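Quick note —
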Amino acid sequence: MDEFERFRRDVEGEFNRSLNLIPGFAERVRAGRRAERFYGCSDLPNFYRKPFGSGWALIGDAGLHKDPYLALGICDGLRDVEWLAEAIREGLGGARTLSDALADFETRRNEASATDYQENITAAKFAPLPPEFFALRAAVRDKPDEATRLMKARNRMIDPSDFFNPQNLQRLFAMTR
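Predicted structure written out below.
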């Protein structure tokens, strides 16, 4: 955000200056052809909304919006629609009141998204990664399966605790000695 105005004044020039920071990647990008103009936005709000009311319900970005940096919106939407359908079935099916079922849907959504919500905001700020992450990345550098697991765990494509647990981390660091 500190550099936003400079980028906005010269999007293409700033894009090219950024590319120059990674020469091999810059060559590959410049070998291609840009199909569209640059698109961007700033000051994207992050928010939770109450996801239901009399005769309406919200899922995904409509009820829980995060910066699109980690592209979690569609995942939230797919998760929410399943849980919302479950709540509606319970409420209309007489298992309990619809308002109780929908209130539980909201609680479930909020609890399930809380960690991703905060991590996404942090990631969107491009905060430097801690030295421990670079040490771990070095430990899996020559181990493609472990490197894949690291990235999947970091991006919550697998349960992070399956990778980032003391036993697994000790095993990985022991392999590099």
